Fold this sequence. Notes:
Layout: E1 15-16, E2 22-27, E3 30-40, E4 43-47, E5 57-64, E6 67-79, E7 83-90, H1 93-109
Antiparallel strand pairs: 1-3, 2-3, 2-5, 3-4, 4-7, 5-6, 6-7
Amino acid sequence: MRPASAPSRRLSSRVQATGHVWAYWHCQGHDDLSPVRDMSIGGLFLETGKKRPAGMLTRLDFLVDEGQVRADAVVRYVLPGTGLGLKFTAINEKDRVKLAGLLMRLRRIHPAAELP
Length: 116
């Protein structure tokens, strides 16, 4: 008998962020502002039509109710015409606390929308 769904390889669950979080990001000498579709303590998905190759380093800045959050990330995967999946590679401790607060707030806004 097979399980109803395959277990996730993610270390932390994602939460829907659409309409609540935008990220200013810098990659390959280009800057952009994009909505965040979903995120976790380990990374996020940016909605953008811009392509960046997997492995590219990215600098992210969020200005959210919890304060300014800055992080370094790497492009993990690309969905052409949809966006980029990014994995956080460095976040200082103060910004990690703010990110955790943001995730808690988003979970209250979308309690049933937690993604695998």
